[in-house]
């Protein structure tokens, strides 16, 4: 049964193949239709685009002025009573009588001591000691002569104490608060760095001088007495009235004539 079925299938397939070949060979002729396409030119219309100017529209911004009300802040000032401070002028009593000590012989020394004022010797010796006790004898004499040259000059006070302590002063706060205190009991101090000799107004506390068995003080005192009593060494400085230490250069020396340098001090006189 199976063989019969297979044989029929084979015959069927064979018949299909033979029929297809026969149709292809002996079938009707093929008609080939050629299509011809004509080229048609279509005219293209040129479109001209004209430039159109668009007008510029200016926009104006209108700013309205707005007035802002001013805020005024009231400041309340309290009236305070300030006590009036009245500064009493300090009147310095300057001796206008110039005492010129005429040189006297050494054998009249006792009389001389009576003529020379002890307070002037004290002032001159103090200045020599404070300014030049570390200098040579010549340096101490030069400092003493500067003071005496000023005494002899009418532009300065007429005694050694007045020359040495010349300058503005301020009253001590201890006596300033005592309104009823007499003037002769008030205490005054020199204003700092505004006096004639630096040791007097440098703001430093000066040590108390022990005058007993103090060779430096005795030397300064002897030089002071010799200058006041006998006008010694008057030609040493050619009348110099100013000096300063060699490690400083003050402005005032630009208008002065330099005389000499002795130890650490340079001496000048007015030109």
Word description of this protein:
- The protein is α+β, with helices and mostly antiparallel strands.
- The chain has a domain at 106-233.
- It has helices spanning 2-26, 109-115, 118-132, 137-151, 160-164, 173-176, 198-201, 215-230; strands at 169-171, 188-190, 242-245, 256-262, 265-270.
- The strands form two sheets. A three-stranded antiparallel β-sheet has the order 3-5-4.
- β4 (256-262) and β5 form a beta hairpin.
- α3 crosses α8 (215-230) and α4 (137-151) packs across α8 (215-230).
- Residues 82-92 have low confidence and may be disordered.
In percent, how much strand structure appears in the residues? 5-15%
- The average pLDDT is 80
Number of helices: 8
End-to-end Cα distance, whole Å, is 167 Å
Task: Note poorly predicted spans.
Answer: 82-92
According to DSSP, the number of beta strands is 5
C-alpha geometry: rod-shaped
In terms of structural class, how would the helical and strand content be classed? alpha+beta
SSE pattern, N- to C-terminal = HHHHHEHEHHEEE
Largest sheet: 3 strands, antiparallel
Based on CA atoms alone, the radius of gyration comes out at 63 Å
Strand order of the largest sheet: 3-5-4
Quaternary status of these chains?
single chain
């Amino acid at each position: 049964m199976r063989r019969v079925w297979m044989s029929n299938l084979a015959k069927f397939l064979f018949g299909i193949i033979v029929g297809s070949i026969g149709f292809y060979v002996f079938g009707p002729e093929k008609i080939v239709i050629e299509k011809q396409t004509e080229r048609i030119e279509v005219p293209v219309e040129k479109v001209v685009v004209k430039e159109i100017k668009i007008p510029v529209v200016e926009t104006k911004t209108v700013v309205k002025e707005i007035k802002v009300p001013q805020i005024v802040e009231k400041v309340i000032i309290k009236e305070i009573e300030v006590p009036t401070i009245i500064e009493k002028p300090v009147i310095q009593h300057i001796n206008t009588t110039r005492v010129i000590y005429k040189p006297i012989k050494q054998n009249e020394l006792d009389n001389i001591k009576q003529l020379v004022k002890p307070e002037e010797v004290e002032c001159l010796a103090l200045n020599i000691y404070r300014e030049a006790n570390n200098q040579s004898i010549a340096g101490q004499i030069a400092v003493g002569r500067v003071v005496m040259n000023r005494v002899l000059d009418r532009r300065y006070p007429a005694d050694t104490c007045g020359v040495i302590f010349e300058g503005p002063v301020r009253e001590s706060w201890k006596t300033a608060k005592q309104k009823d205190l007499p003037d002769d009991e008030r205490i005054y101090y020199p204003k700092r760095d505004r006096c004639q000799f630096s040791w007097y107004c440098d703001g430093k506390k000066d040590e108390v001088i022990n005058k007993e068995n103090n060779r430096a003080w005795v030397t300064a005192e002897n030089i002071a007495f010799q200058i006041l009593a006998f006008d010694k060494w008057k030609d040493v400085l050619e009348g110099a009235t100013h000096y300063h230490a060699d490690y400083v250069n003050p402005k005032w020396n630009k208008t002065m004539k330099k005389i000499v340098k002795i130890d650490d001090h340079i001496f000048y006189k007015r030109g």
